[in-house]
Amino acid sequence: MKTTRKISLIIALCLLSFNHSIAQITTTTSDIATFTTVEKNYPDSAIDGYNLYVPKSCTSTSEAYPVIVFLQGGLGVGGDVDVIYGWGLPKMLTEPDTIDKDLRKLVTDTFVVIMPHIEEGQFYSNEDAIQTIIKEVATTQNIDTKRIYLTGLSRGGHGTWGLASRIPETFAAVAPICGGNHGISDYQALAQLPIWNSHNTGDNRVSYNNSERTISRLEATGISFQKTKSIASTNYKKYNHIFTATKSDSHDAWTEMYSNPNVYNWFLKYRKE
User: Fold this and answer.
1) Separation between Cα atoms, residue 143 and residue 149, nearest integer Å
2) In whole angstroms, what separates CA 118 from the centre of its chain?
3) Whole-angstrom distance between the N-terminal and C-terminal Cα of the chain?
4) Angle, to 10 degrees, between the axis of helix 127-140 and the axis of helix 155-166?
């Protein structure tokens, strides 16, 4: 975490009501938001805590804020819970001055962001813990539980596919990035959700074929994906199902995704009935 943020609460121990387990909580503040790290064990789960980003404009009297649930990549597995801030969307939240002015409000002042951490394994087998975390946040923050969006990169991309197929009722839209289909349990259920999948065609870490195969299986259920070659060129207003295949040999498909307003505006189109 950035040392320039004012520390308002270094460490606290509290009893969270959902499963009565002790959590260690660290809270820091910036001019625009509150950052909270919760270290807590969840029953039958590899999740050992989560990070929470809440814009200061999200208050008990404001309109309820939509939520992005962000799933980390493999480099963040194990170790400190707040290691997630090292890359992707979480890194952007801690470094708002690096974000283009036109994008900054969308990234820093539009969503509450929940960032679970796993000590081992995969996200997609932790659906009960994910739902518990969302409930915990809903008891303390003014969030709109009908506008929860799920996204993740690499291992978190696998997790996004898997969790969305297992608990589709939880999410209004999902955006898996450079992941695979290992955790998908129900393609028919998954196909009911708006999906924006991004994967570089020459990915040197997770094969592009993973996403291509997943899209083909989803299209076999009767839906159709709009195929695009970049996030910026995508007509996000028109399509509910998008597959962006950028020509690149890099594993990093997330920088393009999270650095463009299109994906955030696409999320905001959706609300659970």
Assistant:
1) 12
2) 14
3) 37
4) 80
Whole-model pTM: value is: 0.93
Q: Please give the Cα distance from 72 to 90 (Å, whole number).
A: 9
Average confidence (pLDDT) per 10 residues, the chain, 273 residues: 38 41 91 97 96 98 98 93 95 95 94 97 96 98 98 97 98 97 95 98 97 98 98 97 98 97 98 93
What Å distances lie between residue 178 and 15, 49, 90, 212, 217, CA to CA? 37, 24, 17, 10, 17
Q: What backbone phi and psi angles, to 5 degrees, belong to 178? A: 45, 45
Amino acid at 68: I
Which pair of tokens denotes residue 31? 């001019």
**List of long-range contacts for 78-81, beta carbons under 8 Å, 24+ apart:** 78/119, 78/120, 81/37, 81/38, 81/39, 81/48, 81/49, 81/50, 81/51, 81/117
Residues 6+ apart with CB under 8 A from 244: 196, 197, 198, 199, 227, 228, 229, 230, 231, 234, 257
Domains and their CATH numbers in the chain:
32-267 (3.40.50.1820)
